[in-house]
Description:
Elements: H1 19-31, H2 34-41, H3 46-55, H4 58-68, H5 74-79, H6 82-91, H7 94-102, H8 106-113, H9 119-126, H10 130-140, H11 147-150, E1 157-159, H12 164-173, E2 183-187, E3 193-198, H13 199-204, E4 222-223, H14 228-238, E5 242-246, E6 252-257, H15 258-276, H16 289-316, H17 318-323, H18 326-354, H19 363-393, H20 396-426, H21 431-459
Parallel strand pairs: 1-2, 4-5
Antiparallel strand pairs: 2-3, 5-6
Amino acid sequence: MTDPRPRDPESGDDFAPTRGLIAEIEDSVDAGDAARLDALLEPLHPADIADLIEQLTPKRRAGFVQLYSREIDGEILSEIDESIREDVIALLPAHVLSDAVREMDSDDVVDLVEDLEGPGRETILAALDHSDRAAVEQSLTYPEYSAGRLMQSEVVTAPEHWTVGETIDFMRSEEWLPDQFYHVILVDPRRHPIGYVTLSRLLSMPRARRLRDLTEDSFRTINVLQDEGEVAYAFNQYHLISAPVVDADGRLVGVITIDDAMNVLDEEHEEDVLRLAGVGEESHVSDTALQTARQRLPWLVANLFTASLSAMVITMFENTIAALVTLAALMPIVASTGGIAGTQSLAVSVRGLATRDLNKGNARRVVTRELFAGLLNGLGLAILLASGAFLLFGDPLLGMVLAAAMIVNQIVAALAGVLIPLLLSRMGLDPALASGTFVTTLTDVMGFFAFLGLATWVLL
């Protein structure tokens, strides 16, 4: 079936709603035209509708929910970004919310309610059947960001002695099966998972074949207390589609599927990017100017204090600058180039720590590589800068000072970009959270100190 949604050739994204469509939806909301809104949204995927809701201003979002609330189901609700999901839930009529929640798998319900408190959480839990509510409440007892919070309790299992035919007949007769699953998990009488069979292999084999003969080599279990970041890494590293979750006694309690694991990876990457940029994790394109300012101001204040260190270094050499005014124009070149180099090294290091490519085993080699890369970059930039300074100012000594300061700061920047994230990681802190501030401060301070210190020593 062809997707009737119009494409936006200017956006370069075949899967994003067009600007024209967004404008039409905003016009429909402003006009209170529910029929037109339904017609515009009817061909869209739930994920696209969720994206549209996120892009609306808070006022328009309230109007949208009022007009379209009867159509907001579990699929749409689970796709809405958690930064605004609570606001959307508060706008939904109780019966619409209840119907939406009953359509969702247990892992999606857990994701929905774990950040809610009081009446909001109770409203959602009250909409569930007794068994579903018990499964959700059990998941909520596990630590936040653990496999227990990530898993769904609906699991398709079978004894290992069953045949393909028995398994297929069982699945056809049951109505409780999850909407999406990829494996039938084989369990022993004590409900310990001992293997799994992919649905594709199950459907391609004769009915008489035993399940135990069809198990996959990729089978591995995940402890219910395992950190979700480690779970996502395992899925990515071992190309898993789904994995059973076990408790401390090795009994099956749930299953994690690839879509949930990839969501964790996506969220972690997004958090790293926002933290490196000094932006709050709750930042969103639909935030107001006041919300945006509140999220960014603490980081700017912190940077204000760190920048004062650079000012202190410059003050130490005020006599040098007064004697050689040209230095004031050249100082930013050394500092800013060092800042860029530090950011480059930092981005690679934080990414390497996140993907486990940078670890204790290869840390020394990576640090050594960054050291020599900084030295080589410094030499290359030093030649260009010294030549330029000589041509512009006719002073070879000034060129030598610039070149030496550039080499020093490039080495400092390269080492800081890898050593600071490693140190923060070793201390149990998120290397993306504060590395950028430390690296920028260090390169600025060392850049000014090296340049002005060498200029004082050589030129005066």
